[in-house]
Amino acid sequence: MSRYDEEAKYDRPKRRTRPRTKDRPSYDDAAEGIVITRDRGRYTTWVGDTATGHEVTAMKARQLGRTGVIVGDRVKLDGNATGDDGTLARIVEVFPRTTLLRRSADDDDPVERPLVANADQLVIVVAVANPEPRTGLIDRFLVAAYDAGMRPLLCLTKTDLADPDPLLSIYRPLGVESVATHQGGDLSELREQLHDRTSVLVGHSGVGKSTLVNGVIPGADRATGIVNVVTGRGRHTSTNTVVLQLPDGGWLIDTPGIRSFGLAHVDPDRLINAFPDLAELTADCPRGCTHTGDAPDCALDEAIREGRADPARVDSFRRLLASREGRELRDAPEPT
User: Which of 29, 72, 173, 251 lies in disulfide reach of 312, CB 3.0 to 4.6 Å?
Assistant: First the structure.
């Protein structure tokens, strides 16, 4: 080999001289799908009608850059979207989201962690016993639902072990709807609440989410676990978020058990707007009012004195505010 050839061998490749173009593909004919689960950079999407569609495995296209893709996203797929074995499509576009359920790692972490997109109902699954209910975590789920613009629904499980009414009485002033279930019981009321909705199931480990999923979706085969008799905590049985089709219409999104839920991203003004009757009363609040119980000259206190506001409803709203602002101890059981 000559010296010239040896040096040329290590030369850097020359920069391409082809002029760049601003034209970008439109993907007008791209297939549209819903992301139903994610695993290590691969996305399983559902393409087509709810009943007759099929699954397509896809990866995120490079041109999306830092654009995040999460479960529930409606996307455009380029490439082979047949779903045949060995095929892989590309997610080239994410449609605007109608709702976004999110959380932060804790109350000091400003980084938002998107969980689920485009769901319209948050089903908060709570066991009335074994494990004992944690009202602080329930409050935080409610705050997240109101912040996301989602309808909250309390689903009480294991009602054969304890009376659910003491827990329900805490949330009646907020107007939160609820259903009560127990293992082997009738799930028709829950099915009615899920019908034709996109619902997200959240709750502490061991409250029975997987059992509910298996009850309303025959063949779902979600793994179920037991509660540790020493710690009172449930064992994680669902390890990833997955979207499942409901037999009578709608989608059910099962999430792993959650033991903490940071709310650093939530703006109190968005929370008060979830209660139009209270938001109207705060129009006379001084600038910067936090609407908490110790806020000076808060118009909510004046409305209570004048009989224009329900004290129990205001107290319940302020409890949600306190939940947003305070730190929840990880894994610590809440008093009932």
Answer: 173
Does residue 283 contact residue 299 with C-beta atoms inside 8 Å?
yes
Considering only residues 231 and 90, tell me which one the structure prediction assigns the higher pLDDT: 90
Q: What is the per-residue pLDDT across 65-86, written as a single tens digit (0 to 9) for each? A: 888 899 999 999 999 999 999 9
Q: Name the one residue in this structure whose structure tokens are 């650093």.
A: 264
Q: With the CA atoms of 78, 80, 83 and 85 taken in that order, what torsion angle do they form, in degrees rounded to the nearest 10?
A: -140
**Residue 120 · residue 198 · CB < 8 Å:** yes
Output the pTM of the full model: 0.82
The answer for residues whose C-beta is within 8 angstroms of residue 94's C-beta and 6 or more apart is: 64, 67, 69, 73, 74, 75
In a domain, 153, yes or no: yes
Q: Residue 206 belongs to a domain with what CATH number?
A: 3.40.50.300
Give yes or no: residues 301 and 198 share one domain: no
Q: How far is Cα 317 from Cα 175, in angstroms, rounded to an integer?
A: 11
**pLDDT per residue over 82-101, tens digit each?**
999 999 999 999 999 999 99
Beta-strand ranges (E) seen in 255-334 are none
> CA 235, CA 204: separation in Å to the nearest integer?
9
Q: What is the pLDDT of residue 266?
A: 83
Query: Are residues 231 and 241 in contact, defined by beta-carbon separation less than 8 angstroms?
Result: no
Helix (H, G, I), strand (E, B) or coil at 8: helix
What pLDDT is attached to residue 9?
A: 55
Domain boundaries, position 286: 268-325
